[in-house]
Design a protein that fits this description.
Blueprint (H helix, E strand, L loop, with lengths): L10 E8 L2 E7 L6 H17 L5 E6 L2 E4 L9 E11 L3 E10 L4 E13 L18 E2 L9 E2 L10
Antiparallel strand pairs: 1-2, 2-5, 3-7, 4-7, 5-6, 6-7, 8-9
Length: about 160
């Protein structure tokens, strides 16, 4: 089944990217947890833009989430500011604040930690390719199955 990608777009706009964080606008969807997921995508986007190595990241832990009211209605715009607290060899940690269009705080996320993974210059561009991509080389002899060009490297920061 081919689902249109636009159906899952929640990051409406990236407004500011700085050395210590990112600010943007999300569009609320009716799916439970969608706004928190979108906030995490924006936070992760900062890492992809600003980290020089090991930019492939996945959310790992959150210390605390505080809600200050009901979930915004579907299609409402919500601003997010993510502040980077710590950048370590294998993790990035930050705090996020989500505000309604009225300026009222809807949620605060404290201590959101992402895990960093290695991605060399062969692997990193594949993340942004819409088509299927592979990193392979010809087999050792004629007619052999193609094999991987090599293992994905560990984070360079290890």
């Amino acid at each position: 089944m081919d689902v249109p990608r636009a159906a899952f777009r929640r990051v409406h706009e990236v407004r500011t990217v700085g050395s210590d964080g990112i600010h943007g606008v999300l569009r609320a969807l009716p799916d439970p947890g969608a706004l928190l997921d979108a906030a995490g995508q924006l936070f992760g986007h900062w890492m992809q833009l600003r980290l020089p190595v090991d930019r492939l990241v996945f959310p790992a832990t959150v210390d605390r989430i505080r809600f200050c009211g009901p979930t915004p209605a579907p299609h409402d715009l919500v601003t997010v500011t993510a502040r980077i607290r710590e950048v370590h060899d294998v993790t990035v940690r930050g705090d996020l604040e989500l505000r309604r269009a009225t300026g009222e705080v809807w949620a605060r996320i404290e201590g959101w930690t992402y895990r960093r993974f290695g991605a060399d210059e062969r692997v990193w561009p594949m993340k942004f390719t819409r088509r299927s991509a592979a990193s392979a080389s010809p087999g050792p002899r004629a007619g052999a199955w193609p094999g991987a060009a090599g293992p994905i490297p560990p984070p360079r920061s290890w």
